[in-house]
Amino acid sequence: MTSSDIADRIVEAILAQKLAPGARLGEQALSMLFDCSRTLVREAMMQLAARGIVTVSSRRGWFVVEPSESEAREAFEARRVIETGLIRSAAPMDKAKLDKLKRHIREEKQALKGADVGRRSYLLGDFHVCLAECLGNQLLADTLRDFTARTTLIAMLYQSTHDAAHSCQEHVDIVKALETGDTARAEALMAQHIGHVQQALRLNTPAADPLAGLRAALAPVSGPRNDPDTPSSPTYLGAVL
What we know:
Layout: H1 3-15, E1 24-25, H2 27-34, H3 38-50, E2 54-57, E3 61-64, H4 69-89, H5 95-113, H6 117-134, H7 138-157, H8 164-179, H9 183-199, H10 212-217
Antiparallel strand pairs: 1-3, 2-3
């Protein structure tokens, strides 16, 4: 077990929606789980922090990131630029690579019929990584894995309403366009697909008032105050006698 192995396992868990935004990643617990030293775990966490997957608090430890609304928009824009650019610049895909993508889609469809939500989520996200690999750019495939993990966290955090079956069908359409050599259509379908996922997020919702409870409790009490004609008497807050 290496630090990279640990980091990969955490990213896979995020893609499967098994680690939620803000989840704490304790070094001691992870070292026991992976049967390794805390130093190795810390190295993995530092790798993930550099990739924007986790963040650290000096007093509380490591946590899965909770992207802001602006970070959510940036992540989807980055994916749109990378994935449409990959399709636009790639050479025609050979049969072996098309077959690999079709196998992946068959796995997606099978997962949609089952009850394992984690596997379904993982496969739908991993399609984009698989596509980048088949288009011949491993570096961008690795980058996309991290961006896809971030957008998975965003979907959990902002309660995405995007339908998994619809997402799978859009993957099918993209592969069909690539198979016919219509890269312009494949590029347009990819941009549309990413847009659909982004539009399903519940962004631009009013932020909750963190002081709502205290604000209500400390609001001015209505009624007469210090009325000279009213005799003074003790006040019991919430007392039942």
